[in-house]
Amino acid sequence: MPTPVDQNLSRPRSFWLDACRSLAIIMVLMSHGRHFLIPAWETAAVFRIGGFLGVELFFVLSGFLIGNIVWSSFNRAGPHRAWVLGFIARRGLRTLPSYYLFLLVNVLLISNAVVPGHVGDLLPFMVFVQNLAWPHPLVFGEAWSLAVEEIFYLILPLCLVLSSLIFSNRRIALFSAATLLLLLPLAARIIAVELSDPLWDSGIRKVVVFRLDSLMVGVLASWLARVSGTQPHQDSSCFGLGRIGYWRSRNCIFSEREDSKHQYIYTCLVVSDGFYRICSVANAWPHMDPGASNNRQAGGDSCTLVLCALSGSYAGIPHHPVVTEECCSGKSP
After folding, report:
1. What is the pLDDT of residue 79?
2. Cα torsion through 299, 218, 143, 319, rounded to 10
3. Helix (H) or strand (E) holding 279
4. By C-alpha distance, which of 48, 62, 61, 54 is closest to 28?
5. What is the structure's pLDDT at 229?
6. Residue 284 buriedness (CB in 10 A; 0-12 / 13-18 / 19+)
7. Cα–Cα distance for residue pair 311/249, rounded to 1 Å
8. What does 64-105 look like in DSSP terms, one character per residue?
9. Residue-level pLDDT at 255
10. pLDDT given for residue 132 in this prediction
């Protein structure tokens, strides 16, 4: 009889996960395109939040999809670790050619004074460290999210290898690495907010070390579905960080503390947790009975969590960075 992992490996491509990807693309395009619509329709300014939401959905969805690949490679490799190089090489072949092409385009634009900046500013972009622990440069602003993903694709397998050297049980090693990549970025945000006064958009949201947990949320959802044979959206106890972040943010907002630091720390995690549940439902939907009350509730709860997190986190504070032009006001969402 096939194991839950075997069953998951044989699953066909999910239409609903593709729909999530399409939704993310549409939201980002709406955010970019709002500048053309505003002269004729001022209400289109609200589309700016689509850039934020679209990128967050991309992060969770990327983690969700890459989690299957990492788990399969890690589980099959046994004591061998050559899979790490193969995994990193495959990821690189999928993204690096087009990335370096656009990097070359930016070099030409700067060299010909079409856009401001210096060619030397692009050197950190070669190895994706332009926003590793500091704000992203103004030049080639669209590259910030790709830097987050590429660094995550490098760190995740390395963490798994190091964890497997400490723990012989592969599942313990896996969840130890997951815990590390969930808690360290959260701790980093807390420290940064307490010790300095960063801008939320450029100083928190677009800095690599503060964002790795957004992808790890998706990876963890994928792993939980594969290892346990259950869908994580049906078990609210399997992932509590987003719930904690939501209630912390909600309590701060409804106490009318406009300068609350908790929003800087938890906002992205709250939204990622909502998208985590949506991706879980989308992945399971072809195998679920839509008429079953618990499955209808699972889908409704997922959408409700995102909407509640957004309305609770943003609507109560008119100057929140997601609502104002600090977020998504430039060329990069």
Report:
1. 62
2. 60
3. helix 262-284
4. 54
5. 55
6. buried
7. 11
8. HHHHHHHHHHHHHHTT--THHHHHHHHHHHHHHHHHHHHHHH
9. 44
10. 96
Please check whether residue 136 is in contact with residue 151, taking contact to mean a CB–CB distance below 8 angstroms: no
Give the per-residue pLDDT at 315: 39
Separation CA 207–CA 186 (nearest Å):
12
* Spatial CA neighbour of 205 closest among 88, 119, 329: 329
Q: Which residues of the chain have pLDDT under 70?
A: 1-14, 78-80, 227-263, 270-271, 273-333
Distance (Å, whole) CA 330 – CA 333: 7
Q: What H or E segment, with its residue span, contains residue 130? A: none
- Residue 101: count of CB within 10 angstroms of its CB: 9
Question: What spatial distance separates the first Cα and last Cα of the chain, rounded to whole Å?
Answer: 47
- pLDDT given for residue 276 in this prediction: 66
What is the distance between the alpha carbons of residues 262 and 264, in angstroms, rounded to a whole number? 5
Between the alpha carbon of residue 31 and those of residues 55, 67, 182, 303, the distances in Å are 11, 28, 28, 21
- In angstroms, the CA 258 to CA 84 distance is 45
Of 175, 123, 131, residue with least CA distance to 150 = 131
DSSP 133-147: SSPPPSTTGGGHHHH
pTM: 0.78
What is the model's pLDDT at position 215?
Answer: 93
Chain-centre distance of CA 90, in angstroms? 20
Beta carbons of 113 and 105 less than 8 angstroms apart: no
- CA distances 47 to 59, 171, 307, 321, 323, Å, are 19, 42, 15, 14, 10
The per-residue pLDDT for 175 is 84
DSSP annotation of 332 reads -
